[in-house]
Specification:
Blueprint lengths: L7 E2 H22 L6 H8 L3 H11 L6 H8 L5 H12 L7 H8 L3 H11 L9 H6 L2 E2 L8
Amino acid sequence: MNSNAKEASFLEIYQTEIAPQLQSLDIIIKSMDEPLSVTETAGALYISETEVKNIMRRLHIELIDQESFLRIMAGASSPICRLYQRELHIGSPYVYTREDVSYIYSIPIDMINQACEDLGLIKLTAYTLPDLFSRVNMQPAGFSDL
């Protein structure tokens, strides 16, 4: 990593790297009226076709519909899939703890605590996360490091 790299707020990283992938996946899932191919699934999840086939074999999946797409996502290795897995692991609550946010987004807990203190945030929800993320500055290593 270049030590002269400018820090970015996590909100910028979220908006440029994470949110577009989540929106794309949401559209794919909601508009799926026919099973996806292995190639389409691999592209959507940023994994190899071999990985898709291995997950399908392991989970006994024959067709990639909405439900099996999410099952594949829950077993895949890309950063967006790992984020999804961490969200599933904590149960997708309406109110997040500071530790939940730290875990899901791989942000050091001390950064989360400081941002919460700065903003006076007590409850963390999908609505307060953008404010929180705007106060967390990180080296823009990229989403692949999460």
